[in-house]
Amino acid sequence: MPKVAIVMGSNSDWPTMQQAALMLEKLGVSYSAKVVSAHRTPNLLTEFAEQAADAGYQVIIGGAGGAAHLPGMIAAHTYLPVFGVPVRSSQLNGIDSLLSIVQMPKGVAVGTLAIGEAGAANAGLLAAQVVALSDKTVREAIIAFRTEQTATVLALDELSLPQ
Ligand SMILES: Nc1c(C(=O)O)ncn1[C@@H]1O[C@H](COP(=O)(O)O)[C@@H](O)[C@H]1O
């Protein structure tokens, strides 16, 4: 059973949410990806969120744009940690998505990431960090990823910087 569930409000969110999937793949974390919408498929959302823990998921990543109620509604139905990714919207550039996700009422928590692809990648990283608490292989993969990232930055010299 996959350890991380990536859910998104529409298949149009996939180019953004794919960055979460790519990060999980890089770190060797199993995941599933599915379209579920609080607005368009409310019953499916309830069913998915209520059974997610029993199904063996450890973390849920929810990505949505505009009136992005998806991550909050999932969080309302499960004790699993939920990370929310505000997908960039065509009308308001993702500010609407960000504010919809981040302004949760006290007592129901969503960990909100940055708007867009970087936020999705970091949601994948954070989800892997949760999984790593009980998985040594993933822990080592995260440490190797961070070490390589640091080495890449340190290897930059002035000449290789863009003019
Ligand atoms: N914000 C939500 C929810 C939800 O929060 O349940 N369901 C779909 N959507 C969002 O609507 C946007 C446009 O969707 P379409 O491209 O399908 O019209 C998407 O970014 C999706 O996440």
Which descriptors would you attach to this protein?
163 residues, alpha/beta, Rossmann fold, 5-stranded parallel beta sheet, 6 helices, globular, binds ligand C2R, 5-(carboxyamino)imidazole ribonucleotide mutase activity, purine biosynthesis, EC 5.4.99.18, PurE_dom, isomerase
Largest sheet: 5 strands, parallel
- The termini sit apart by 48 Å
- Measured by DSSP, the beta-strand proportion falls in 15-25%
What is the CA-based Rg, rounded?
A: 16 Å
**Continuous helix count:** 6
Bound molecules: ligand C2R
What is the CATH T-level topology? Rossmann fold
Short description:
With 163 residues, this protein is an alpha/beta fold. It has helices spanning 14-26, 42-51, 70-76, 95-102, 117-132, 136-154; strands at 4-8, 31-35, 59-65, 82-87, 111-112. It has a five-stranded parallel sheet, with helices on both faces.
Write the layout of secondary structure elements.
Blueprint: E1 4-8, H1 14-26, E2 31-35, H2 42-51, E3 59-65, H3 70-76, E4 82-87, H4 95-102, E5 111-112, H5 117-132, H6 136-154
Parallel strand pairs: 1-2, 1-3, 3-4, 4-5
The structure holds the ligand Nc1c(C(=O)O)ncn1[C@@H]1O[C@H](COP(=O)(O)O)[C@@H](O)[C@H]1O.
Family: Belongs to the AIR carboxylase family. Class I subfamily.
GO molecular function: 5-(carboxyamino)imidazole ribonucleotide mutase activity
InterPro entries: PurE_ClassI (IPR033747), PurE_dom (IPR000031), PurE_prokaryotes (IPR024694)
